Amino acid sequence: MITIDHVSKTYASKQGEHHALKDISLTIESGDIFGILGSSGAGKSTLVRCINLLERPSSGRILIDGNDITNYRGAQLKELRQSIGMIFQNFSLFQQRTVLENITFPLELTGCPKAKRETRAKELLDVVGLADLSARYPAQLSGGQQQRVAIARALANRAKIMLCDEATSALDTKTTVAILDLLKTINREFGVTQVLITHALTVAESACNKIAVIDDGRIVEQGATHSVFAHPQSNALHELIENSRSVISAQGVSIVEQGA
Ligand SMILES: Nc1ncnc2c1ncn2[C@@H]1O[C@H](COP(=O)(O)OP(=O)(O)OP(=O)(O)O)[C@@H](O)[C@H]1O
Ligand SMILES: [Mg+2]
């Protein structure tokens, strides 16, 4: 379980202070696929980066399974980061390493022997459906395939939490559906809790059991996905719904319908 307890984050810059997160409290249960939904600049990435301390909260606490991680440093911080996988919109693969070497990389950092690393990487290649492509380089893969490699790499150390920051935003609709299906499979079969940031309503709707809507650094509503979407309360969610309707009518199809 991830407990975000009255977390605020203020960035200081030459232009002054920016309050990116304002007193956020949120509980993400183990096994959730928890969506963080909000428009650009709302604070989604900042919030999720606080969970693995890529950003440190300015105030408040973050607990993982009851342990207060907020002030972790050194070996504890390293161990925390190893237990949390993260994937990004731009895949962030090592271009000079093959698919297999990308996946073994986090295991090298933990001193895992070569033969074990490769066995684990091959298991993961099977999970993500890329067993045939282990010797390729990232530039020789499609976007969807690159994201599969990133997912495998995120899981190499048997992470129990995955943070996905706009993981499908660079992908077309069909590939988005396939990647969301893979994340759901990983959630179900390996019990990996997923925190999924998105500004796309359809992604939250089709993948997440719970969502929180963030607007200007505050959580403006949260709950089970179906009930939040059945009775949207906040202006932020109404706006996202409006935007999404215009995109869907422009495309003539919704990802939810395609994903069936
Ligand atoms: N390192 C930083 N220094 C100063 N301000 C920052 C920093 N990182 C983010 N911000 C500001 O904090 C606010 C929240 O940013 P954040 O990246 O969390 O938004 P987001 O919801 O992820 O947006 P997007 O959907 O565009 O990725 C923005 O106004 C942003 O400009
Ligand atoms: Mg972001």
Report on this model:
By secondary structure, the chain is α/β, with parallel strands linked by helices. The protein has one domain: Rossmann fold. Helix content is 42%, strand content 26%. The chain has ten helices and ten strands. It has helices spanning 44-51, 74-82, 99-109, 114-128, 143-155, 173-190, 201-207, 225-230, 235-251, 255-258, and strands at 2-13, 16-28, 33-37, 59-64, 67-68, 84-88, 161-165, 193-198, 210-215, 218-224. Strand 4 (59-64) and strand 5 form a beta hairpin. Helix 3 crosses helix 4 (114-128). The longest helix is centred in the last third of the chain and has 18 residues, at 173-190. The chain starts with a strand and ends with a helix. Mean pLDDT is 93; it is low at 255-260. The protein binds adenosine-5'-triphosphate and magnesium ion. Magnesium ion is lined by residues 44-45, 165.
Task: Based on the model shown, name its key terms.
alpha/beta, 6-stranded mixed beta sheet, 4-stranded antiparallel beta sheet, 10 strands, binds adenosine-5'-triphosphate, binds magnesium ion
